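for the recovery benchmark. tokens below, seq after
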């Protein structure tokens, strides 16, 4: 973790401009082709959710701007970002989780399964007031439906800068499987260019063998 030197930062003016907004976040909704990743997940008897979440957080960590966070009016560059994902229960409720990032999928998958089991065997939201980390991306999924737009509940007085990524229901088109993805980021830290680079890298990972 290090502090960004804003005096030589080429986006300093952009940061100052967008940070004055009551809601500095902007969002993009797109699609990810998950044909290969889904097929390989089934062949290897692995969780598709765990696989695409791992590939997504790998892509986040690949894009430096998506590791920027605002802390005490300074911009911190984290070495690693971790997924904080919502997990659903059979009774229709959900809870928050936190999983340490690891490049090794098996290690990551083990940690995620532990968190999922904790949710399944608990009740409530599993989040204490003030118990929030900055070095995360907030993940959620809407596996029951596709979507073409999305908004988030926000506390505008809360100094927030972590990205929010949501996945939709997988659907088939032209013999390919796709998922909707919505990415919300702080415009003072991230531009559309960086979101596009994230989506490109994420898609490349989804097309790889694992």
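predicted aa per position
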């Amino acid at each position: 973790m290090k502090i960004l030197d804003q005096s030589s930062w080429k986006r300093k003016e952009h940061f100052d401009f967008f940070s004055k907004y009551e809601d500095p976040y902007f969002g993009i909704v797109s699609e990810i082709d998950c044909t290969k990743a889904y097929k390989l997940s089934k062949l290897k008897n692995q969780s598709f959710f765990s696989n695409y979440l791992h590939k997504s957080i790998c892509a986040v960590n690949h894009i430096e701007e998506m590791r920027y966070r605002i802390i005490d009016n300074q911009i911190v560059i984290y070495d690693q970002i971790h997924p904080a994902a919502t997990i659903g229960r059979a009774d229709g409720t959900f809870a928050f989780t936190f999983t340490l990032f690891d490049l090794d999928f098996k290690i990551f998958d083990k940690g995620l399964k532990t968190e999922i089991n904790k949710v399944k065997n608990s009740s409530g939201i599993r989040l204490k007031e003030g118990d929030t980390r900055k070095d995360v991306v907030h993940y959620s999924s809407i596996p029951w439906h596709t979507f073409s737009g999305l908004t988030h509940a926000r506390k505008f007085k809360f100094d927030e800068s972590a990205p929010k990524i949501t996945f939709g229901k997988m659907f088939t088109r032209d013999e390919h499987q796709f998922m909707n993805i919505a990415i919300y980021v702080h415009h003072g830290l991230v531009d559309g260019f960086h979101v596009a680079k994230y989506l490109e890298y994420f898609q490349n990972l989804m097309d790889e063998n694992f």
